[in-house]
Amino acid sequence: MKPAPFDLVRPREIAAAVALLAAAGDGAKVMAGGQSFGPMLNLRLATPSLVVDISGIAALKTAREEPDAVVYGALVTHADVEDGRVPDAGAHLLKRVASGIAYRAVRNRGTMGGSLCHADPAADWVNALSALGAQVEIAGPSGRRWLALQEFLTGALSVALGEGDLLVAVRVPKVPASARFGYVKHCRKVGEFAHAVGALLVDPAAGTARALMGAIDAPPLVLADARDLFGGRIDADFAARFDAAAAAAALHEAGVIDPVDRHVHVEVLRRAVRQADGLFSPDTRSAA
Amino acid sequence: MDVTAPGEGVGARLPRKEDDRLMRGRGQYIADIRLPGMQDVAFVRSPLAHARIRAIHVPEDLKGRVFTAADLNGVKPIRAVSGLPGFKVSEQPALAADKVRQVGELIAVCVAPTRAEAEDMAARVELDLEELPALHDMLEAKKPGAALVHEHWGDNVFLETLVNVNIEAAFDAPVKVSRTISTARQCMAPIEGRGTVVHLDHRMDQLVVHTASQMPHIVRSGLAECLGLDEGQIRVISPDVGGGFGYKAILLAEEICLGWLARRLGTPVRWLEDRREHLTANANCREHHYEITLYAERDGTLRGIDCEASVDSGAYSAYPFSACLEAAQVASILPGPYDFPAYRCRTWSVATNKCPILPYRGVARTGVCFALEVALDALAAELGLTPEVVRFKNLVRPEQMPFDNITKKHFDSGDYPEVLTRALAVIDPDKVRARQIKGEPDGRRIGLGLSIYCEQGAHGTSVYSGWGIPMVPGHEQAGARLTPDGGLELRVGVHSHGQSLETTLAQVAHEILGIPVARTRVFYGDTAMTPYSTGSWGSRVMVMAGGAVATACTELSERIRRIGAHMLQADLAEVRFAAGRVIGPHGDVGVNEIAHTWYRRPQDLPTDVDGGGLEVISGYKPVRDSGTFSYAAHAVVVAVDPEIGEVEILDYVIVEDGGVLVNPMVVDGQIIGGLAQGIGTALYEEMRFDSSGQPLASTLADYLLPGAPEVPAPFIGHMETPSPYTRFGVKGIGEGGAIAPPAAIANAVNDALRPLGVEMLHSPVTPRRIVEKVLAARAARARRSAA
User: Fold this and answer.
1) Could you tell me if B646 lies within 8 Å of chain A, comparing CB atoms?
2) In terms of C-beta density within 10 A (0-12 exposed, 13-18 middle, 19 or more buried), how is residue A270 classed?
3) How many other C-beta atoms can be found within 10 angstroms of the C-beta atom of residue B779?
4) Mean pLDDT of chain A
5) Cα dihedral sign for B708, B712, B717, B723?
6) B272: β partners
7) Cα–Cα distance measured from residue B608 to residue A95, given in angstroms and rounded to the nearest whole number
8) Residue B493, phi then psi, degrees to nearest 5
9) Is the Cβ of A186 closer than 8 Å to some Cβ of chain B?
10) How many Å is the Cα radius of gyration of chain A?
C-alpha cells in the first residue's frame, strides 16, 4: 500500500495553485488535509501525476464574519470549528457537527474544503452544510465564482470542479435566532462514516423548514421547502405532524428503492426533527 | 512453597515489566529491523478467487528481480496433514503454478530497494488467468456437482466427522427446539500485521528468519521441510510481536518465499504485510454454520443435542493446525459445560475459494458457544422459563467434579453454577426485568443476555497425538540460569505477544527462588536461545511454560542448596533453601554469594562439587495432560433501537474461574481484551464476499472493529478453584474473554426483541439485520391481522 510515483508541489498562493492545476490538467490532484486523499493514494485508487499540496496557502486558513454569513477558508480544519477558533454560523451549531466527525486525529488535519471536494455522500460537512444552504467559492483560470453547495455536489465523490479549479471558501448563512437545527447521523461505531444522516433547519417564527436526508450513495436529498413533511405548514407544533410517508416517498423518488434503507433514513430524519423541536426549550438553547 | 517476598510471587497484582518498553514506544518489532542492503518485497497476488494460470508475463527489464513458481527450484508446498481418518490433503504452493484458489494467493515475488518500487514492479506483471467458478458459500460447495477447489478430491470436503452417543434416546422428549445459527467470516486483526526479514548469517551458516510468530520453533521445522534445509541451517527470531490471537500461529508461504529469496540473492529481504493483504488475502477465521436441535423436558432438563455443523475452511490446510481444527473440535466441545445423556454431531470442514481458516482466540469455542447458548435461550423462551433456570438445570454440578462429559472431555475442577449465580447477583435480573416491563422513554428495548462456557486449555500430548497434525506438544521445557551476580535468566520456547510473560514467569521463578522480579530476565522468541516448544497457543503458556519454569527453578534451588551447604560447611541434610537464602544450623548464605562463589571463586568449593552448576533446563507436564478447564459466566444488558438497529451495551458482567491466578491484573487485561474481540464478533466484524469470491472489505473503514467507545468497562469477578493437575493449580485463561460475548450479546438482543417476534441467529448482529427482521415481523403481523 504505497502510492504510485507522483510529483509534489507546494504553492504558497491561490493564484500559483490555480496556475499549476491548469497547466497539469487531468493528471493533477489537490491535497488539503489528506485524510481521504492519503489513503486513496496509498491504495492506488488515485494515481495522479502531480499532487498540488495547498496546505501552505495561508489565505485559505482564515474565516471572516459577514453580516448574514460566515465565510470559512477551504483549509479551516474540523478541529478549528470544534475548538471555536473560527466563528460559528449558528450558536455552537457547526461546533456540534465538527465534534462528531471521525476521530480527533482526523479532525486535526481534515479540512472543510477538502471534505466538500471529496464529496463522500456520508460526510458530515457535505450533509450539514447542504442543510444550511451553504455556497462554495471556486477560484479558476477565468477568475472566481460562487456556487450553491447543492450545485457543486454533482454525484457521489463527484463535484463541479473543472481543470484548474480550486475550492477556496465556504459561505454558510447565519442561522437566525428564531431557528433551530436538528442533525442526527446513524453510525455503527463512533467515528465511522454515517449510514444515514437526517437534518432539519426549522424556523417556526418564519414558518420555514429545510430538511435533508443524506448518505444515500448520492448527493444529499435536500427539501428546501420542507413544509410538506409537516402537513403543509410550519408552526410551533411542527414536530408532531412529521409525515414519515411523505419523507419515504421523497426518498423513493430520489432512487432509494430498498425499503429497509428508506425506513432507516426516515427514522433518522424523524430524530433530527425531534432534536430540533427539543432545542426550542430554553435550557437547550445553547446547543442550537 | 514459602512466599519469600510477599507482593512478587504467584498471585501478586504486579505491574508489567514489559510496559516500560512498550508504552514508551521502544518495542522492537519486525518493521523496526534495519539491515545493510535490505531489499523490500511486494507480491503479485491473485485478483481472482478461482482461476487457471495460463501465463505470467514478467517484463524483460524486471527479470532477476521478479520471481515466479518456475524459479522456485526444490521448494516444497505447505502440507498440513491431519491424521484423522478420511482427511484430504491440500498442497499450498509457495507461489501458485497452475491454479489459484483464493483472492490474494501468491503468484510472483518482486524485490526492490523500497516497497513502493516493488509495488510498481508488481503492477507491471501481467497475468493471463482463466476464471473458474468460485466457491464462496460452503453450503453450496458441499453439494454434489459443485466446482472443485482441489479437482482430484472429487468433492470439497477436507474432513467429515460424526459423533453419536445414543441420540435416539432423546427423540421422545416432550420438547424439541431447532434453529439454524451461523457466524460470519472474520479477520482477526492484531495491530501489527505479519512481517518477515530474512538474512544469511555466514558465520553460523544459517538462514536467519526474523518473523512475527507465536511459534518460532514450529516455523523453523516447517521452513526446513519446505526449503529442503536442515533445521540447524535455520534460526527463527520472533522479536516483539504486536498481537497474535492465532494469526501468527502459522507457517507462511511468504516466509518460504523470503527464505528462498535471501539464499538466491544473498541480500537481506523484508516483507511487511499491509492492511489490504491482511484483510483480503490472509486473515480469515470463524465462519461456522449450525443446524442444531435441542431435546428437553418441560422443566428445561436437556435430553439431548443433535447438530450438523459446517465450517468454511477456505482453500488450503494451514500449517500446523490443519483445515479441520475448528470443525472437528466443534463435535467434541459443543456440549459445553452441560451434562445431558444423548448427543449427535456431524461436522464438515469444507474447502472454498477463500483464504485458509485460521485459529482465532477461542478457536471453535466462540462459534460453539454462540450456537448452543443462543439455542438454549430459544428453548427457554419456548418453555416460558428464564434463561438462568434452563442453565442451572443442566450445568455440571461441583459435586460431579472431576467430570467426564458426553464427549469424554475431562473437566478437572470447578463450580459452574456458582459463576452464574455470582454474575446474576451483580447484573440483578429482577431490576433489569422490571425496567424492561416499564419501557424506555426513547423507545429502545432493554434485554438481558447470559452465556456460560468452559474452555479446555493447555491440552497436551494425549489430545493432539490423536489429531496427527504436524505439531504435538510434549513436555514443555524451560531454562533457568543464575548469573554470577545472582540475577536470574529464564529461557522459554513459548512467545509473549501480550501474555505478559516477562512479568508472570518472573513471578513464578520468584515464588521458588525468591529472586526479585526486577532481577529476572525472560528470553523468548529465538530458536537459538530457547528450548524447543510448540509455542504460544491454546491458552497453554502459563500452565506449561509456568510449570516448566517452576520445575527448572526447583531443580536450580536444589543446586543452590548443595553449593550453599558446602559454603556453610554443613551437611546437606541440615540446610534448607528459603527466601533466596540457604539456611544452615549455624548461619546462612544468600543466592548472590553462592552464584559469585560458583562462577568467580570456584577455588572455594570442594573438588567433588556437583559440576552441573547453576544452570538448569528442565521439562514439565501436568499430572494429566487432558487440559485445564477454566470457565466463566457472562451477563450483559443491552438497549436495542428497533427502528434503526443500534445496540448499546449498558452493563457487562464477567465472573470467571481460571484456577490460581499468577497475576490477577494480567488476567483482567486478558479478559478485557478478549471481551473487545468478542464484541467485535457479536456486533461488528464481518468479511463478506461477492458471488465471484471477491472479499468486500480491504480497509478498516469497511471491516469494522470495535474501538474504545464501543467496549464498556466490564465488572470482573474472580473465583479460584485450583486445577488438581497443574503446578500451583493454574488454568489456561488466555482465550476465554473472546468466547462468551457473542452469545451473551445476541441473547440480550433477542431478549429485547422477542416480544416483537424477532430472533437474531447470525453474528454479527448488525443494525441492518435487526431492522430487516423487525420490519419483516411487523409486515407478517399486519398480514395476519388483515387476514
Assistant:
1) yes
2) buried
3) 11
4) 96
5) negative
6) B195
7) 82
8) -90, -10
9) yes
10) 19
Chain center to CA of B575: 45
Decide if B105 contacts B281 (C-beta within 8 A): yes
What is the overall mean pLDDT for chain B? 96
What is the rounded distance in angstroms from the CA atom of residue A141 to the CA atom of residue A162? 10
Strands B234-237, B206-211: pairing is parallel
* Per-residue pLDDT tens over the stretch B517-550: 999 999 999 999 999 999 999 999 999 999 999 9
- How far is B19 from A283, CA to CA, in rounded Å? 46
Side-chain-facing half-sphere of B749: CA atoms under 13 Å = 33
Asked if the model's pLDDT at residue B211 lies above 50, the reply is yes
B42: left (phi over 0), alpha (psi -120 to 50) or beta: beta
Counting runs of H as helices and runs of E as strands, what totals does chain A give? 10, 14
- Of B436, B426, B348, give the one whose Cα is nearest residue B86: B348
* Conformation bin of residue B154: beta by default, left when phi > 0, alpha when psi is -120 to 50: left
* B782 and A CB contact within 8 Å: no
Q: Round to whole Å and give the CA distance between B288 and B333.
A: 14
Cα separation, B205 vs A236, in Å, equals 85
Q: With CA atoms as reference, report the closest residue to B509 among B553, B444, B475.
A: B553
Contacts of A195 in chain B (CB under 8 A): 767
In the predicted structure, residue B600 carries a pLDDT above the cut 90: yes
Please, are residues B758 and B645 in contact by the beta-carbon 8 Å criterion?
A: no
Instruction: Return the residue of A nearest to B442 by Cα.
Output: A271
Count Cβ–Cβ pairs < 8 Å, chain A vs chain B: 62
Helical H segments across B334-400, by residue range: 364-383, 387-394
Partner B contacted by A263 (CB < 8 A): yes
Name the residue of chain A whose CA is nearest to B764's CA.
A188
Are the beta carbons of A192 and A200 closer than 8 angstroms? Answer: no
The cell numbers describing B757, all together, are: 417476534
3-state secondary structure B466-482: CCCCCCCCCCEEEEEEE
Residue of B45, B278, B644 to mutate, testing the A interface (most A Cβ within 10 Å of its Cβ): B644
Q: Are B129 and B118 in contact (CB under 8 A)?
A: no
Cell numbers given for A5:
510515483
pLDDT at B5: 39
Computed over its alpha carbons, how large is the radius of gyration of chain B?
A: 28
Q: Provide the residue type at B83 as one letter.
A: G
* pTM more than 0.90: yes
| pLDDT confidence of residue B6 | 57
A192 interfaces chain B, CB cutoff of 8 Å: yes
Start-to-end Cα distance in chain A: 43
Residue B448 Ramachandran class (φ > 0 left, ψ -120 to 50 alpha, else beta)? beta
Helix or strand (DSSP H, E) at A197? strand A196-203
From edge to edge, which strands make up the β-sheet containing A196-203?
A180-186, A196-203, A208-214, A221-223
Number of residues written out for chain A: 288
Q: Which spans in B569-690 are helix H?
A: 591-600, 664-679
- In the predicted structure, residue B2 carries a pLDDT above the cut 60: no
Copy the grid coordinates of residue B781: 403481523
Amino acid B400 reads Q
Asked whether the CA dihedral A103, A104, A108, A112 is positive or negative, the reply is positive
Q: What are phi and psi of B176, to 5 degrees?
A: -135, 125
Chain B residues with CB under 8 Å of A188 CB are 646, 683-684, 704, 766-767
Whether the CB of B280 is below 8 Å from some CB of chain A: the reply is no
Side chain identity at B177, as an amino acid letter?
V
pLDDT at residue B720, rounded to an integer: 96
| Whole-number Cα distances in Å, A287 to A91, A194, B198, B325, B700 | 7, 21, 58, 55, 33
Give, for B54, the enclosing helix (H) or strand (E).
Answer: strand B51-57
| pLDDT tens per residue across span B706-738 | 999 999 999 999 999 999 999 999 999 999 999
| Cα B444 to Cα B193: distance, rounded to the nearest angstrom | 39
